[in-house]
Amino acid sequence: MPQLTSRQLINIARIYCMVFSPFYAPIWAFIWLFLFSYLRLSPLFYKIFILVTVLMFTIVIPRITINIFRRINKWTHWQLSHREHRYTPYVITIASYIACVLLFANMNAAQFMLGILVATLVAGILCGILNIWWKISTHVAAMGGLTGTVLAFSHLFYFNPIPMLCVMIFLSGLMGTSRMILRQHSLSQVLGGFFVGLICAMVFILIGW
After folding, report:
1. Under 8 Å between Cβ of 138 and 146
2. 144, 197 Cβ separation under 8 angstroms
3. Does the CA dihedral 187-190-196-197 come out positive or negative?
4. pTM for the full model?
5. What digits encode the pLDDT tens for the residues 26-75?
6. What distance in Å separates the CA atoms of residue 15 and residue 7, rounded to the nearest whole number?
7. pLDDT tens figures, 135-176
8. Among residues 117, 97, 115, 180, which one has the least CA distance to residue 152?
9. CA-CA distance, 76 to 85, in Å (whole number)?
10. Confidence class of residue 2 from pLDDT cuts 50, 70 and 90?
């Protein structure tokens, strides 16, 4: 069986990190919500409206704003990942999440919907604070958050979480390995990110309920 070269491994790791970007974590959580809770019985228009709203505030708006800011400052994507520059995407993303939480609160959305957004927001704030001293992995924090979401949903909606939990642990391991292959994080930073996301998701989704 042919072995992958170092360059191939790096390219695969980069693609994996792009596909499972932290920006996508909330939209995955809401998709699971519509699959495993009573909200699967909701009208299609309502589901589309919620997913589009989450998509706009957690992916589209932050990414466009970050790219505009990066171009204004003439930073490369690599420079943006440096610790001293990582505050910009944190602040922009957190502001967009706060706007989304306020919107959902005004819409009187279900508490566990707010729990997903608040959990992601708190995890982002914690990662931003920890980044002052320690370059914690936000990519793995997002995967930890999705793992915690599976556990929280299984408790709230009484389904067997084992199959999806195994998938999420496997995907989280791949993400941690990818970040280390790219030399973005150490093992301790990867594990720290995972547990920050896991704990935030379980606590705030369950509290929201």
Report:
1. no
2. yes
3. negative
4. 0.84
5. 999 999 889 878 888 889 999 999 999 999 999 999 888 888 877 777 66
6. 12
7. 889 999 999 999 999 999 998 888 888 999 999 999 999 999
8. 115
9. 11
10. low
| Structural tokens at position 70 | 């990066």
Higher-pLDDT residue of 136, 79: 136
State yes or no: pLDDT of 1 exceeds 50.
no
Report d(CA 118, CA 116) in Å as an integer.
Answer: 6
Considering only 73-87, 105-119, 151-165, which range has the smallest mean pLDDT? 73-87
> Amino acid letter at 49?
F
What sign results for the dihedral spanned by CA atoms 104, 107, 113, 115? positive
Q: How far, rounded to the nearest angstrom, does the alpha carbon of residue 162 sit from its chain's CA centroid?
A: 21
Q: What is the 3-state secondary structure (H, E, C) of the chain?
A: CCCCCHHHHHHHHHHHHHHCCHHHHHHHHHHHHHHHCHHHHCCHHHHHHHHHHHHHHHHHHHHHHHHHHHHHHCCCHHHHCCHHHCHHHHHHHHHHHHHHHHHHHHCCCCHHHHHHHHHHHHHHHHHHHHCCCCCCCHHHHHHHHHHHHHHHHHHHHCCCCHHHHHHHHHHHHHHHHHHHHCCCCCHHHHHHHHHHHHHHHHHHHHHHC
